[in-house]
Design brief:
Blueprint: E1 3-7, E2 10-12, E3 18-25, E4 33-39, E5 46-51, E6 57-59, E7 67-72, E8 77-82, E9 91-98, E10 102-104, E11 108-112
Parallel strand pairs: 2-11
Antiparallel strand pairs: 1-3, 3-8, 4-5, 4-9, 5-6, 7-8, 9-10, 9-11
């Protein structure tokens, strides 16, 4: 049974930081590309950041320089460090594991507001 479980979301003021975690089970984690996506109310789900099995990273232009994706193959986990958060970063953030077929977590809410 494949499980992706996100944690670390919450309410933060503009300019603040959060670190999201995604713990996985049931997959050969090290061979999967991992990613973070987000979906704001009334909008489509969009890519935030991805990291390949080889460690190559890609970011959406809107988060470059502010967010960092990382993975720990030993812990079968992927992380998203989010700094300098803005109100427009408010969304449900989803963890994704992809190897031709995608698995998704249930999402964690991030709210950036004063």
């Amino acid at each position: 049974q494949v499980q992706l479980v996100e944690s670390g979301g919450g309410l933060v003021q503009p300019g603040g930081s959060l670190r999201l975690s995604c713990a996985t089970s049931g997959i050969s984690f090290s061979i999967y590309a991992m990613g973070w996506y987000r979906q704001a109310p009334g909008k489509q789900r969009e890519l935030v950041a991805t990291v390949t099995s080889g460690g190559s990273r890609k970011y959406a232009d809107s988060v470059k320089g502010r967010f960092t994706i990382s993975r720990d193959n030993a812990k079968k986990s992927v992380y998203l460090q989010m700094n300098s958060l803005k109100p427009e970063d408010t969304a449900v953030y989803y963890c994704n594991a992809d190897r031709g077929y995608s698995y998704w977590g249930q999402g964690t809410q991030v709210t950036v507001s004063s």
